[in-house]
Amino acid sequence: MYERYLSAASTYAHSVDHLFIVIAALVGFWLIAAEIMMFVLIFKFRAKPGRPTQYITGEEKHLKRWITIPHALVLLCDLVIIVGAISVWYDIKQNFPAADETVRVIGQQWAWSFQQAGPDGVMDTADDIRSVGELHVKVNATYHFDLISRDVVHSFAIPAFRLKQDALPGRTITGWFRPNKVGTYDIQCTQMCGLGHGLMAGRIVVETPQDHAAWLLRNTNPTVAAAQPGVPASGGKMTMAEARR
Amino acid sequence: MSASAKPIANTRAGTGIPTAKLITWWVIASEIVIFGGLLASYIMHRLGHPEWSEAASHTNTWAGAFNTLVLLTSSLCAVSAHKAADALDGPRAAKLLRLTALGGLLFLTIKGFEWTKDIHEGFVLSSGGFWSFYYVLAGLHGLHVLAGMIIMLIVAADAAKNRELQRVECIGLYWHFVDIVWIFLFPLLYIAR
Amino acid sequence: MSTYAVVNPHIEHDEPGMFKKYFWSTDHKVIAMQYLFTGMAMAMLGGFFAYVFRMQLGFPNHNVPGYGFVTPGRYNALVTMHGSIMIFWVAMPVLIAAFGNFLIPLMVGCDDMAFPRINRLSYQIFLISAIVLLSSFLVKGGAFGGAWTAYPPLSANGNYNLTPLGSVLWLVAVALEFVAFLLGGINFTVTAMNSRAPGMKMYDIPLIVWMIVLASVIFMASAGPLIAGAVMLLFDQTMSTGFFDPTRGGDPLLWQHLFWFFGHPEVYVVLLPAMGIVAEIIAVFARKKIFGYKTVLYTTWAVGFLSFVVWAHHQFVAGIDPRMANIFSITTLMISVPITEMIFLYIATLYGGSITLGTPMLWALGFIAEFLIGGVTGIFLGSSGTDIYLHDTYFVIAHFHYTFVPIAIISVFAGITFWYPKMFGTMLNETLGKIHFWGTVIPFNFIFIPLFITGTAGDQRRVYSYAQFAEQSRPALQHLRTTSTIALLVMLSFQFVFLFNFFWSLRNGKKAGPNPWRSATLEWTVPSPPPHGNFAELPTVYRGPYEYGLPGRADDFAPQNIPE
Ligand code: HEA
Ligand code: HEA
Ligand code: CUA
Ligand SMILES: [Cu+2]
Fold first, then answer.
1. A115 and A103 in contact (C-beta within 8 Å)?
2. C-alpha torsion angle, residues B133, B136, B138, B144 (rounded to 10)
């Protein structure tokens, strides 16, 4: 439904959107009902000469109904919303599908940097691919991310994925996403993190497996790859994104 | 209105509780949530950091225990001061209040010695989580003891002239509260290992 | 009983000097005015800040007339100060302190607050806190820019926030403001509990008094942990402790919990007095007893209680245990139930009335109409599933401005226009009042409806420019931002109508008389403005506050202080 403004490019983007619509329908109904009721009453009971006001305490049964029944119905709507909310939340934040790939996301004032396992498929080896400001992922692959921060609280947000998670210094927070639409999307930082908060932009490039393989090749430095594993990766090769900064 | 003349609002008691007492309870309630917040934070951290018990072992349990005794006895004086006030014996109430304040003074002196020792051993506010909480919690409590003493001496001065005797009970209440806070601090800061 | 019927000794005595009268007075009415005018001045400042950063958002990278160029650093400071000022130095002083001080003694029928000197002290501390806050603009590094939520480590470490002095001053100012309102709360609570006129039983107390007292209690009970947090943060800033520093055994999340444990109740602390004002006005202008007075109180208590168990809905994606989010999502949606009922009761009050749309009534009804929108949008955020996406987008901004502006602006204008005659003895000009009403409420919707859309389209908060973000910098969205800014300009320009009306009517408004609105509560039984000491003879109360349209009476209302 945000499509007009913003594409939906992850598997759970639509479940968020649908929940949004359900809530909009439920509360929208009550909002309009309440507003109409109010304006009708204002008009119907406007001061008229010769029509005295009525003495109503609100204890009268036949009038009280008008409060208690809607009250119960609103409670019902709340329950519906809760069920929807929790089920969506559970899928996104609590049970992760098995990972095809893992990526480490590092927030620091004021840039996002990323670390992915190189050809050997293991993290923290010499052939890891590190990039700043730009994350390349395969379409239709489930990614788990380990989110860390080097200084203050940041928030890793990809609107097109409907994904958001704060990055806290001193903790590693995990999450997942599964891009399902090729394209390039914004990465935001949505937690006030100081002077450059408004500049802390990144891009996530969702590409076909072929393109992704090609990109991997372009960015793995053969000499480093040859070097025996285990040696701390001395900042692997950087992407174009580096130049941009 | 001339500051001395009390407004009628102050003399009414719709709840049956005198205004002075209500205000005391309000102050105590707001203090409880403040110390509650600090203590809760401390306990959370303490559970998360077993290694802190090592630092805690450097605190002087005996000094803490003795201070607990001092505060408890001073609270006792406060109680009898209240009794004296009820018996409309202002001068006696004043005497007992001053005695209570003396207890507070003793408490602070002992704290002073403790802290100088800690600091000499190199444990300062910023030498780690435990010590930060130790100084902030005990320090904040110490400030309350000091404030309590000052108010108490003022009340005593009035009471000696048989004025504002109802205040004797209020400051007593406050003193008990300060006492109870310490009852919580002592085991949490000194004994918990 | 009868002992109270004495003639009030403090009534009308020799006039004290200028200074003593206006700056050193312990009279609750003078202190109310001090709070009101300070709050107004701060409101204009907060409004001005909003104007500056909205101009930057609407017309990026142009010089803002009357301010200059908005750098990222300045933008952050402006937003932070706007938020802090509007909540702590506008909403609270005006809604709770100004109306509370002015109304409570008059409405419960006594001569002053129970502790006048504590009352004066509370204002003086409040004034100092405001000065400290504003002085932070002058210090090296400038004012604090880490958002009004001041999350550490950013707020704790000068190397991160680059405003080492500003952040300390901000914290000190907020702490002082809290002390001021803890002291103020003493008087509101004690006076309402203890100093009521004889005969005024629990359920004869006007709703606004109830609401202000409950708000003070909620504030007192929720502020403590944050004061504790403020102490810790202050030591982190100045004494290099590590309470919130993960590298030193601290925990940044702790602050978030302490802050929101206060922060959420706080929003109801300002909501309740607004609800009270609206209740008084609706009853008078609909000539109706409040529909289910007691039920309104029960719902208020329910809200007060629930407000303490929802705080983590601000932290769904902050890194808390995901299972916790489910619990808080449930409690958050539950809190909408009592509020729903309260609002429905207000609407039901209109039923069977004889409604006249004076300016105060317009504002009161406007409050309900607009707050509903703010309320229902809270549900989108309360549902954890959608909040993953909406958190810290402009959807949140729009949500809480649809609650805060009705509260701190609309209901305040309602209250001012309603009690102005009692405060100053003259009537405001109705025509100007109506112009100001429509000129404020219509643009208000054009400011924030567009922000709902940009929010759902992914605009994140606290960003001075979207140039870095391809999706956000598309023209479609920029148009919406510009619309919002232009609407703000219109709204602000109409505020001058109010200011003119306010000060012009002081001299030229027609004399009000004691009871221009034919209201039944006690404050309208004394001359306008009330003399020092309020009541020539302290009243006795015989009935509830909203006895309108009692059958078998000549008049259509029965004042609380008339026997039989
Ligand atoms: C006085 C101000 C005020 C008020 C009254 C409210 C009221 C509510 N707020 Fe709001 N809120 C704020 C001020 C306020 N809020 C502020 C300032 C922030 C942002 C802080 C920051 O991050 O800077 C915020 C943020 C905020 C968040 C966090 C968003 C985020 O950062 O991700 C959430 C999430 O749950 C929330 C929920 C609610 C709810 C459920 C209510 C409920 O009380 C609303 C209840 C009312 C109604 C529901 C309307 C009447 C009912 C009907 C018409 C019937 C139909 C309803 C149903 C069917 C349910 N608010
Ligand atoms: C009471 C609370 C309150 C009020 C009333 C307002 C009023 C307004 N706010 Fe504000 N706002 C906040 C509380 C409030 N705000 C908070 C808490 C934040 C978050 C800060 C943060 O992220 O840290 C925020 C943030 C915020 C943002 C987001 C900035 C960002 O994230 O980048 C924006 C953007 O448009 C905005 C706009 C406005 C506008 C246009 C108004 C207009 O309605 C203003 C109109 C001004 C007036 C009407 C004043 C006129 C005054 C008089 C005429 C004097 C007499 C009046 C009285 C006595 C009351 N506000
Ligand atoms: Cu990083 Cu905002
Ligand atoms: Cu909230």
1. yes
2. -150
Place of tokens 């929720």: C222
CA distance C143 to C367: 33
What is the distance, to the nearest Å, from the Cα of residue A81 to the centroid of all Cα atoms in its chain?
Answer: 19
Q: What is the pLDDT of residue B98?
A: 93
Quote the ligand 3 centre to A17 CA distance (angstroms).
25
Per-position b or e across C457-473, b if 16+ CB within 10 A of its CB: bbbbbbbbbbebbebbe
Instruction: Give the residue from C378, C395, C412, C391 showing the smallest Cα distance to C502.
Output: C412
Contact residues for C270 (Cβ-Cβ < 8 A; gap 6+):
C87, C91, C92, C95, C96, C215, C404, C407, C408
Mean pLDDT of each 10-residue bin along chain C, 564 residues long: 42 58 83 95 96 95 91 94 96 96 94 91 96 94 92 92 94 96 93 92 94 96 94 92 87 94 95 96 94 94 95 94 94 94 95 93 97 96 95 96 96 96 94 96 96 94 93 92 96 96 93 91 92 89 91 85 84
Matching residue, tokens 């009101």: C36
Cβ neighbours for C496, distance < 8 A, ≥ 6 positions apart = none
Q: Which helix (H) or strand (E) holds A138?
A: strand A134-138
Distance C313 CA to ligand 4 centre (A): 6
- Give CA–CA dist C560/B9, Å, rounded: 19
User: Could you tell me where the beta strands, DSSP code E, fall in C488-551?
Assistant: none
CA dist C100 to C36, C415, C543, Å? 11, 11, 22
- Is A168 in Cβ contact with C160 (below 8 Å)? no
In the three-class reduction of DSSP (H, G, I as helix; E, B as strand; rest coil), residue C348 is classed as helix
Q: Answer for the pair C464, C54: CB distance below 8 angstroms, yes or no.
A: no
Cα distances from C235 to residues A18, B54, C160, C232, in angstroms, run: 46, 23, 16, 5
Please, which residues bridge with residue A177 across strands? A143
Query: Distance (Å, rounded) from C-alpha C423 to C-alpha C102?
Result: 8
Which pair of structure tokens corresponds to residue B9?
């609002």
Residue C93, helix vs strand vs coil: helix
**Phi, psi at residue C50, to the nearest 5°?**
-55, -45
User: Closest by alpha carbon to A135, among A177, A98, A166, A174?
Assistant: A177
CB atoms within 10 A of CB A186: 22
Is B139 an 8 Å CB contact of chain C? no
**Which of C327, C386, C394, C402 would you mutate first to test chain A, the one with the most A CBs within 10 A?**
C386
Residue C1 and residue B12 in contact, taking contact as beta carbons nearer than 8 Å: no
Distance CA A32, CA A42 (A): 15
Q: What is the CA radius of gyration of chain A?
A: 26
CA distance B104 to B98: 10
Residues near ligand 1 (Cβ within 6 A): A 26-27, 30-31, 34, 74, 77-78; C 149, 267, 270-271, 313-314, 332, 335-336, 339-340, 343, 372, 375-376, 378-379, 381-382, 387, 391-392, 396, 399-400, 403-404, 407
Dist. CA A227–CA B80, nearest whole Å: 83
Q: Is the pTM higher than 0.80?
A: yes
- CA C337 – CA C329 distance, rounded (Å): 14
Please tell me the distance from the alpha carbon of residue C321 to that of residue C298, in angstroms, as a whole number. 33
Q: How far is the CA of A189 from the centre of ligand 3 (A)?
A: 4
Residue C556 structure tokens: 């259509």
* pLDDT tens-digit readout, B69-94: 999 999 999 999 999 988 888 889 99
Ligand minimally distant from the alpha carbon of residue C462: 2
Angle CA B22–B101–B87, to nearest 5: 60
ipTM over 0.90: yes
